[in-house]
């Protein structure tokens, strides 16, 4: 919540995708629609975790993804009022800043419910985005990986006086007990997939009760058809970014998260990702890079520091560091579209909810990280030690050691947070980044940079 | 030395040095296997029925050294301590690690254990959303998996009669512990909070039959000590590991008398017995679900189980005049639920104090001042007799 001072990078050397402006407009329109959803006769669901929006879309609901709203507030430097409300209510600043921002919104919503007919909070004070969030008609929790996610919605339910319906989907953590366990395979994966699919069927019953309407399966199939196509285009665009110099960066893809994560599955979504891919293809064809003078190719592990998105993109570009890949991009958000059967999408949806990047044991994460590091020809890893996100940070030290041991790739850690700027220390990132880049230079001169990983084929660990 | 005192000292020694106990146990049980079980709900009965000694891994209170390189400093002290135990070879006293609870920080530390020790680590995730209509079936399914895995690990089949005998042994030990806690909440001040913590922690480490025998001896001599005039407090929190003993001592040294608690190394752990009249595995599943009804835990999601209501009711039962929340730094379920506790206690007019505990560097004197302030505040609420 506290604003920190950061030195501005000397000159903006990024070359961000122009399509992200289109995405920003789509996202802004989505939120504006949500803020007036009740006036437009829609029921509103608050949810967290995996992208249930196609289910809600098919049920004719308006949906608010709690993390997304917290991230939006932080990205716009508007998280303060919600976090202050949360702090006054009693939430400790070490609590997941997504949750305390969103719970702060819940507190504001309850405190401001002086007009229950509209449910729109803070009619007296519309300038604060936090206070515009319409109150929910019910909750759905779909949180994989992080135990806090499930508890967070339970607390939201309690803040609203335990009066609203709530539905929980449980996700087995993909730990890998069995000898056949692996990424997208093994008995554990199969049984977990079926278990979550079964709960989605239960969710449909629950939503039918809430809406009083039969669930529209055709609409779900249609929505998932668009989402699958958008996800395929996203994957194709990511594949193009393996080019040298990279035509777009991790930061461009961060700007594409909101559309793939919670915008409606429709033609506009497909058009957007077609536009992103086309722009990247154009850059590849014309040798246009995502930053000026790409000298280093980096991997970013950690959930996003939304307060600093633009700043960080410029900070890395200033040093000729193209951040190309990261767990939050390559291994999240409908990243395995081939799993989706558009005529019967529930299983593929369930599987994607399980594929949340915090829902794997470190063995799988190690495999995925090494694979992306090799595939994108990464020179160094940057770990965002996300202060209030224990789910993302848990395995980071192991991943850093593995990248060094197996691929000869160095790494640095810097501390920040998803939605609380006070944890970010710019000087620490700057000094550590410079040190790592210098070390890479020296290693290159010596001819031993990435020796261990030269031509590496990353296989599932035995 | 009396038999009671000797037994008390033995329990204290085990609680404060589990390693020494396990070395003795191994000598007495050549070839016997010991598993470390992570809190909070691992069904020890199943392991014990397989002839395995299940030991709940304690925060051994040693400073975190090499573990710092493995787990972020903003993980809770207990999980950082676990990582350190693994990194420095202190997990060598276990043949395997078992875990049943979905806490993301516990998972993070278990991943470290798996990466740096040779011991197998089995995670059987018990469903934590307990209001779901399918929760009972999922719990039963997971208890079955624990049984299979422990059979595989021990190399023997677990017969139902062995499971029943194990249940009886653990029930008997819990019942005796619970009687001591009930006596305290009813007015007895015979046992100090550190003494009770030693009793519970030793029960988490020892063979239940051996523990029960010792505990029976420890409380065998008739003793009575009524509450004195100190302010009666309920200790709440520390959901998965023990608070520092020196903190408990400071609380009682600052004008407060602990009359009840809902700590993991206290009443929370021993709240619930396994129903001996049911199919044994089914009963263990129901035990897990019932624990959260008896003392609700914020690590579970159960819409009609309210820790805040429990806490207010517990203070009425024990006559506690104030509540001290012991919140381990970085414990997210506790941080999330704390405002609900605060609201309910405020509404009930019960004074309260939040103490954020840390693995190292507890500012005891600062805590003393705060406890003294709570005591003063609470004393002012006492009725004045003229």
What name does CATH use for the topology of the domain at 30-154 in chain B? Rossmann fold
Query: Whole-number radius of gyration of chain B?
Result: 20 Å
Low-pLDDT parts of chain B are none
Distance between the termini of chain A: 44 Å
Secondary-structure-based class of chain A equals: alpha/beta
State the distance separating the first and last CA atoms of chain B. 46 Å
The name of the CATH architecture of the domain at 30-154 in chain B is 3-Layer(aba) Sandwich
How many β-strand stretches of chain A?
8
Mean pLDDT of chain A: 92
Overall tally of domains of chain A: 1
Q: Per DSSP, what share of the residues of chain B sits in E-state strands of 2 or more residues?
A: 5-15%
**What share of the residues of chain A does DSSP label as strand, in percent?**
5-15%
Total helix count of chain A?
Answer: 18
Question: Which structural class should the secondary elements of chain B be placed in?
Answer: alpha/beta
**Helix and strand sequence of chain A:** HEHEHHHEHEHHHHHEHEHHHEHHEH
Helical proportion of chain A? 40-55%
Biggest interface and its residues per chain? Answer: A-B, 48 and 46 residues
CATH class of the domain at 30-154 in chain B: Alpha Beta
What does this structure look like?
The complex is a heterodimer of chains A (462) and B (386). Chain A has 18 helices and 8 strands. Chain A is an alpha/beta fold and 462 residues long. A 4-stranded parallel beta sheet of chain A has the order 2-1-3-4, with helices on both faces. A 4-stranded parallel beta sheet of chain A has the order 6-5-7-8, with helices on both faces. In chain A, strand 3, helix 6 and strand 4 form a beta-alpha-beta unit. About 3% of the residues of chain A have low confidence. Chain B is α/β, with parallel strands linked by helices and 386 residues long. In chain B, 51% of the residues lie in helices and 11% in strands. Chain B contains 14 helices and 8 strands. In chain B, the strands form 2 sheets. Chain B has a 4-stranded parallel beta sheet with strand order 2-1-3-4. In chain B, strand 1, helix 3 and strand 2 form a beta-alpha-beta unit. In chain B, helix 1 crosses helix 9, helix 8 runs antiparallel to helix 9 and helix 10 packs parallel to helix 14. The radius of gyration of chain B is 20 Å and the shape is globular. Chains A and B meet through helix 6, helix 7, helix 16 and helix 17 of A and helix 5 and helix 13 of B.
């Amino acid at each position: 919540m506290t604003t920190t001072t950061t030195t501005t990078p000397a000159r903006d050397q990024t070359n961000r995708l122009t399509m992200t402006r289109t995405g920003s407009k789509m996202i802004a329109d989505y939120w504006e629609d949500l803020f007036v959803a009740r006036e437009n006769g829609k029921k509103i669901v608050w949810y967290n975790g995996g992208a249930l929006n196609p289910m809600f879309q098919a049920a004719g609901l308006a949906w608010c993804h709690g993390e997304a709203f917290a991230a939006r507030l932080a990205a716009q430097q508007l998280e303060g009022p919600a976090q202050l409300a949360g702090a006054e209510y009693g939430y400790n600043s070490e609590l997941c800043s997504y949750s305390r921002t969103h719970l702060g919104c819940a507190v504001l919503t309850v405190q401001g419910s002086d007009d229950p007919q509209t449910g729109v909070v803070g009619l007296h004070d519309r300038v604060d985005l936090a206070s515009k969030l319409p109150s929910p008609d019910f909750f759905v929790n779909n949180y994989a990986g992080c135990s806090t996610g499930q508890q967070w919605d339970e607390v939201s339910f309690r803040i609203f006086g335990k009066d609203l319906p709530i539905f929980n989907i449980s996700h087995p953590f993909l730990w890998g007990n069995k000898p056949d366990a692996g990424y997208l395979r093994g008995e554990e994966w199969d049984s977990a997939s079926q278990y979550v699919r079964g709960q989605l069927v239960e969710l449909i019953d629950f939503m039918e009760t809430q809406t009083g309407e039969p669930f529209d399966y055709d609409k779900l199939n249609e929505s998932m058809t668009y989402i699958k196509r958008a996800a395929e285009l996203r994957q194709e665009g990511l594949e193009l970014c393996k080019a040298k110099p990279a035509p777009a960066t991790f930061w461009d893809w961060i700007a594409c998260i909101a559309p793939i994560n919670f915008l409606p599955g429709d033609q506009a979504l497909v058009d957007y990702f077609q536009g992103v891919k086309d722009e990247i293809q154009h850059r590849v064809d014309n040798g246009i890079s995502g930053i000026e003078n790409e000298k280093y190719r980096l991997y970013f592990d950690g959930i996003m520091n939304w307060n600093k998105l633009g700043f960080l993109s410029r900070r890395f570009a200033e040093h000729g560091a193209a951040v190309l890949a990261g767990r939050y991009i390559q291994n999240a958000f409908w990243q395995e579209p081939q799993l989706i059967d558009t005529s019967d999408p529930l299983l593929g949806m369930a599987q994607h909810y399980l594929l949340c990047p915090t829902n794997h044991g470190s063995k799988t994460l190690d495999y995925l990280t090494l694979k992306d590091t090799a595939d994108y020809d990464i020179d160094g890893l940057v770990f965002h030690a996300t202060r209030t996100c224990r789910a993302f940070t848990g395995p980071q030290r192991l991943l850093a050691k593995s990248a060094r041991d197996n691929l000869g790739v160095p790494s640095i850690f810097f501390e920040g947070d998803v939605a609380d700027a006070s944890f970010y220390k710019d000087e620490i990132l700057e000094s550590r980044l410079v040190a790592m880049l210098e070390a890479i230079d020296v290693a290159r001169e010596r001819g031993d940079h990435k020796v261990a990983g030269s031509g590496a084929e990353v296989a599932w660990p035995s | 030395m009396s038999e009671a005192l000797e037994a008390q000292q033995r329990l204290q020694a085990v609680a404060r040095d589990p390693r020494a106990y396990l070395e003795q146990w191994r000598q007495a049980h050549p070839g016997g296997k010991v598993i470390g079980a992570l809190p909070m709900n691992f069904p020890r009965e199943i392991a014990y029925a397989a002839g395995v000694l299940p030991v709940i891994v304690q925060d051994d209170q040693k400073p975190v050294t090499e573990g710092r390189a493995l787990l972020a400093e903003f993980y809770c002290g207990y999980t950082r301590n676990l990582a350190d135990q693994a990194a420095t070879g202190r997990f060598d006293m276990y043949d395997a690690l078992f875990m049943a609870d979905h806490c993301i920080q516990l998972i993070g530390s278990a991943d470290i254990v798996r990466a740096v020790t040779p011991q197998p680590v089995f995670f059987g995730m018990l469903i934590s959303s307990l209001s779901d209509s399918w929760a009972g079936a999922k719990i039963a399914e997971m208890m079955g998996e624990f049984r299979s895995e422990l059979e595989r690990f021990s190399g023997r089949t677990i017969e139902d009669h062995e499971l029943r005998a194990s249940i009886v042994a653990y029930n008997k030990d819990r019942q005796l512990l619970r009687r001591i806690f009930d006596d305290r909440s009813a007015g007895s001040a015979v046992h100090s909070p550190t003494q009770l913590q030693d009793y519970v922690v030793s029960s988490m480490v020892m063979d239940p039959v051996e523990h029960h025998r010792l505990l029976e001896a420890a409380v065998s001599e008739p003793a009575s000590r009524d509450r004195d005039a100190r302010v009666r407090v309920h200790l709440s929190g520390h959901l998965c590991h023990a608070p520092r003993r020196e903190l408990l001592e400071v609380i009682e040294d600052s004008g407060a008398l602990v009359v009840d608690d809902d700590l993991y190394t206290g009443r929370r752990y021993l709240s619930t017995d396994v129903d001996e009249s049911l199919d044994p595995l089914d009963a263990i599943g129901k035990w897990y679900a019932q624990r959260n009804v008896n003392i609700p835990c914020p690590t579970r999601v159960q819409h009609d189980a309210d820790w805040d209501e429990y806490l207010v009711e517990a203070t009425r039962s024990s006559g506690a005049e104030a509540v001290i929340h012991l919140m381990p730094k970085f414990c997210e379920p506790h941080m999330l639920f704390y405002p609900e506790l605060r609201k309910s206690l405020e509404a009930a007019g019960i004074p309260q104090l939040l103490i954020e505990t840390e693995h190292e560097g507890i500012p005891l004197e600062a805590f003393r001042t705060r406890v003294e302030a709570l005591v003063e505040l609470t004393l002012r609420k006492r009725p004045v007799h003229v």
